[in-house]
Amino acid sequence: MGTPVDPVPEVIRRALADASDAPGYPLTAGTPALRAAIAAWVSRACGAGVDGLGVLPTIGSKELVAWLPTLLGIGPGDVVVVPSIAYPTYEDGARLAGATVVRTDSLTSLGPTPRVRLVWVNSPGNPTGRVLPAAHLRKVVDWARERGAVVASDECYLPLGWSAEPISVLSPQVSGGSYAGVLAVHSLSKRSNLAGYRAGFVAGDPALVAELLKVRKHAGMIVPAPVQAAMVAALEDERHAEEQRERYRARREVLRAAFTAAGFTVEHSEAGLYLWLTRGEDCWQTVDWLARRGILVAAGVFYGPTAGQHVRVALTESDEHIAAVAARLA
Ligand SMILES: Cc1ncc(COP(=O)(O)O)c(C=O)c1O
Q1: Which of 98, 79, 127, 158 minimizes the C-alpha distance to 266?
Q2: For ligand 1, atom 14, which residue shows the shortest CA distance?
Q3: Angle formed by the axes of helices 225-236 and 32-46, nearest 10°
């Protein structure tokens, strides 16, 4: 269903343990070591320059997704745009703020004067595994800048490109070399198997990040000190991330072949942690058909009203379970 199952890498567990004597309050902004590690990783993984980049650790990325509209002062009468088929928390966060949610992948469909304050993009996407090309992201950023709206790009699956190369909103090809109005949201949950630690961060427009820091300090949204130390170890080590990526790559191949042979059509899924599948029938029929074989998947309708004929299959199961799925589909 999507929760990581492989071990937390030893190098990260050791860093957590070594930092466990932490009687004082941690820094909301992150330790200097963590801020430097985030900036260095963003520069490597997102192709972003470090000059003028705002960075801030978050308690996993879900809390930031859920509270970003509120933290930015978005409220009733404002519009938050979310992808038509999306991780549900974008909508939940807009609703927590009392804002109006519009689901669309095409900003031109919005009409002339909606009060759009925030546009969410998610590439590679959950649940579809779709990768948005640089030109598409660039159009979104230009559109939002013209209207003074913020673009929040949820990039938690960026390191998991398979048949397409995902690109960050912070890359100069998309941002035009300026971070104005853009925020990239990242997570170590999947890259480093740290879902249980709650370790994420946001990077981008320094003025927006400063505003988030100010509010989060007062709201007590602080990453625990041992987790901050663990994040430094995770960000500075690419080896474990590459090993984990290879595990997912192998599982993806097995599942892709097994579901295709069983008559499923795989759509998008060019990156990320999921296969987006359809049998051209109502998703609950597919969920039921698979459940009878002891295979649990997520119904497409969880992610949007236009996804009623799809199911989402996660790559986050042990090799043994993945092999069992393939055997049951054969
Ligand atoms: C698209 C997307 N964003 C954010 C998250 C939240 O991840 P976390 O809070 O573990 O960083 C998830 C988790 O599955 C996700 O799929």
Answers
A1: 127
A2: 2
A3: 30
Three-state DSSP at 258 gives: helix
Q: From residue 212, give the alpha-carbon distance in Å to each of 13, 61, 79, 106, 154.
A: 29, 14, 19, 28, 16
**Pocket perturbation via mutation, ligand 1, pick of 56, 58, 62 by most ligand atoms within 8 A of CB:** 62
Nearest atom, ligand 1, residue 189 CA: 10
The closest alpha carbon to 72, from 152, 178, 171, belongs to 152
Is pLDDT of 191 > 80? yes
Distance CA 324, CA 42 (A): 37
Mean pLDDT over 320-328 rounds to: 98
In angstroms, what CA-CA distances link 131 with 53, 157, 254?
24, 10, 21
Task: Please name the residue that has the structure tokens 């902004």.
Answer: 29
What type of residue sits at position 322?
A: I
Q: Which of 126, 131, 274, 315 maximizes ligand 1 atoms within 8 Å of its Cβ, making it the mutation to test the pocket?
A: 126
Q: Is the per-residue pLDDT at 222 higher than 80?
A: yes
The radius of gyration computed from the CA coordinates of the chain, to the nearest angstrom, equals 20
